[in-house]
């Protein structure tokens, strides 16, 4: 089982000619409300990849539809709390020039309690994983508890908070970052020096760093691996990283080695970038298998 302790957001998307100006009221005739949040996206990717995923999080009492949607995509929702705080959400203005302007309300995503985490981890067993991003509260607490229960910790520190991340790395078994997050963490300005800096600073840590269309590199101790991305016509890279993480962890948990897991995850995220949208652009296992057979 993988316990994904993560955000659940509703993304309210409005298409507009231009951003709303101070004092202006603007009508939009294009509105969509989509399931989002890195946590929920990664749970959906894990489920689509065939993993046994339990999402740990919180939504407002009135948002049963969000829970139903996650459940319908194969995510176990028994550990999602119903709270009085509004469900996390983003108000997104999208202009014709494809620029966006976003208000993010963390809401219920920051109402996780120690009792909830304790309950989750008391049912976990050795061999299980906990996955976290940086969109919920109690990150260090959750990692400490996971370590006490001999549950492995995967951490995708997005959005990046370098101070918090460095502080909790001692609890992390697998760190997953993109190149910008990797550079923020190491205080470097290019990819090569980032790749060199990680093992020096954290010799014990296993790191997966995704490099967009340049692929992925992995390093752990003396082992280094790099895998190219698949060449596709990208139209929207939203959720590429989330797709990668879900597929890679699912593959590792099913016993694949790191090269196999990265390759499968690169295929899944290559398909994802050819489609518009977030959770809806994450491919199924069958689609990934067919893509790899091409
Ligand atoms: P994030 O979305 O978190 O910034 P990346 O941009 O590094 O993450 O993308 C994650 C993975 O998705 C990459 O490692 C790669 O395998 C795949 N990917 C991203 N962009 C492309 C692209 N243009 N073509 C093919 N694969 C891509």
Describe this structure as you would to a colleague.
The structure is a single chain. The protein has helices spanning 38-48, 64-72, 114-122, 139-148, 162-168, 179-186, 191-201, 240-253, 258-273, 285-293; strands at 2-5, 9-16, 31-36, 53-60, 80-83, 88-95, 100-105, 129-133, 152-156, 174-178, 206-210, 216-220, 223-227. The chain has one domain (2-8, 37-87, 108-293): UDP-N-acetylmuramoyl-L-alanine:D-glutamate ligase (3-Layer(aba) Sandwich). A hairpin with a 4-residue loop joins strand 6 (88-95) and strand 7 (100-105). A nine-stranded mixed beta sheet has the order 5-4-1-8-9-10-11-12-13, sandwiched between helices. Strands 3-2-6-7 form a four-stranded mixed beta sheet. The mean pLDDT is 96. The protein has ten helices and 13 strands. Helix 5 (162-168) crosses helix 6. The chain is globular and about 60 Å long. The protein is α/β, with parallel strands linked by helices and 294 residues long. The protein starts with a strand and ends with a helix. The structure holds adenosine-5'-diphosphate. Adenosine-5'-diphosphate (ADP) is lined by residues 178, 210-213, 215-216, 229-230, 232, 234, 237, 240-241, 244, 266, 269-270, 273.
């Amino acid at each position: 089982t993988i316990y994904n302790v993560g955000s659940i957001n509703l993304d309210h998307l409005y298409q507009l000619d231009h951003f709303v100006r101070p004092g202006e009221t603007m009508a939009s005739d294009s509105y969509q409300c989509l399931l989002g949040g890195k946590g929920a996206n990664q749970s959906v990717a894990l489920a689509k990849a065939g993993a046994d995923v339990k999402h740990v999080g919180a939504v407002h009492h009135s948002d049963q539809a969000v829970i139903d949607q996650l459940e319908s995509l194969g995510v176990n929702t028994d550990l999602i709390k119903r709270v009085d705080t509004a469900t996390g959400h983003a108000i997104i203005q999208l202009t014709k020039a494809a620029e966006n302007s976003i208000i993010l309300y963390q809401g219920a995503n920051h109402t996780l309690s120690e009792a909830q985490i304790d309950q989750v981890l008391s049912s976990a067993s050795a061999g299980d994983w906990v996955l976290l991003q940086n969109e919920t509260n109690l990150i260090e607490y959750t990692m400490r508890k996971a370590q006490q229960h001999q549950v492995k910790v995967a951490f995708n520190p997005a959005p990046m908070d370098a101070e918090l991340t460095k502080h909790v790395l001692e609890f992390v078994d697998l760190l997953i970052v993109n190149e910008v997050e990797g550079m923020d963490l190491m205080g470097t300005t290019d990819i090569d020096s980032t790749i060199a800096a990680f093992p020096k600073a954290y010799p014990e840590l296993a790191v997966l760093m995704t490099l967009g269309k340049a692929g992925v590199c992995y390093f752990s101790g003396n082992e280094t691996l790099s895998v190219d991305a698949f060449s596709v016509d990208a139209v929207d890279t939203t959720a590429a990283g989330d797709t990668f993480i879900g597929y890679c962890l699912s593959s590792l948990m099913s016993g694949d080695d790191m090269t196999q897991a990265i390759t499968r995850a690169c295929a899944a995220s290559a398909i994802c970038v050819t489609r518009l949208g977030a959770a809806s652009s994450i491919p199924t296992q069958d689609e990934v298998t067919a893509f790899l057979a091409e």
